[in-house]
Specification:
The complex is a heterodimer.
Chain A (H helix, E strand, L loop, with lengths): L2 E5 L3 E2 L5 E8 L10 E6 L6 E6 L5 E3 L7 E6 L4 E6 L8 E8 L6 E4 L3 E5 L2
Parallel strand pairs in A: 2-11
Antiparallel strand pairs in A: 1-3, 3-8, 4-5, 4-9, 5-6, 7-8, 9-10, 9-11
Chain B lengths: L3 E4 L2 E4 L5 E7 L7 E6 L6 E5 L3 E2 L7 E6 L2 E6 L9 E6 L6 E2 L3 E5 L1
Parallel strand pairs in B: 2-11
Antiparallel strand pairs in B: 1-3, 3-8, 4-5, 4-9, 5-6, 7-8, 9-10, 9-11
Classes of the chains: A mainly beta, B mainly beta.
């Protein structure tokens, strides 16, 4: 089983862009059939899927994020990244990166999560 | 979008009890449901996929059932380590969606 680790700023100002990276170790991000994902959880609330990408850059995004989200993959670094623009306090959450079962969209491997707070 | 309505939102139980959590999809999704357990401060853990298949290393006291729009997760003989929050997720179509969660608390 690979290990996933999120990294990035823990504090982002309103209207700015949130940027996080997920580093994958113990497995290759270039294996076909996996759509690596980002999922978030506001404090005390439930889980929300943000989007997913495979290693070729094929992506799926949540329409609720209204075009603010971009997920990209860097195969040379074995990483995938999340960018969320024009953030507000409602984007404050623990952000998780995750790997699904091969060919499916249930999440079998998760990073520990990172709290991102949107505040001036 | 497919809405996943989970109930109850919380349940109190004793060690040894059987707990059943339900999830209803807003449209038919065959058996494309997964269930997760989340403990405070931890990432969710996959318990069940395709409605009834137990993920490896998950104790057999957990079981899932259902198809179409109605799904259940049953925890038999509740253990102390099972007190947590449980989520369902539909994996049938994008956008992927989760239920609101069920907190299983000690009575």
């Amino acid at each position: 089983q690979p290990h996933l680790q999120e990294s990035g700023p823990g504090l982002v100002k309103p209207s700015e862009t949130l940027s996080l990276t997920c580093t994958v170790s113990g497995g290759s991000i270039s294996n076909s059939g996996y759509y690596w994902g980002w999922i978030r959880q506001p404090p005390g609330k439930g889980l929300e899927w943000i989007g997913s990408s495979d290693y070729t850059g094929s992506t799926y995004y949540s329409p609720s994020l209204k075009g603010r989200v971009t997920i990209s993959v860097d195969t040379s670094k074995n990483q995938f990244s999340l960018r969320l623009s024009s953030v507000t306090a409602a984007d404050t959450a623990v952000y998780y990166c995750a790997r699904p079962r091969l060919g499916f969209f249930d999440w079998v491997t998760w990073g520990p999560g990172t709290l991102v707070t949107v505040s001036s | 979008d497919i809405q996943m309505t989970q109930s109850p939102s919380s349940v109190s139980a004793y060690v040894g009890d059987t707990v059943t959590i339900t999830c209803r999809a807003s449209q038919g999704i065959s058996r494309w449901v997964a269930w997760y357990q989340q403990k405070p401060g931890e990432a969710p853990k996959l318990l069940v996929y395709t409605a009834s298949t137990l993920q490896s290393d998950v104790p057999s006291r957990f079981s899932g059932s259902g198809s179409g729009t109605d799904f259940t997760l049953t925890i038999s003989s509740l253990q102390s380590e099972d007190f947590a929050t449980y989520y369902c997720q539909q994996t049938s179509s994008f956008p992927l969606t989760f239920g609101g969660g069920t907190k299983v608390e000690l009575k």
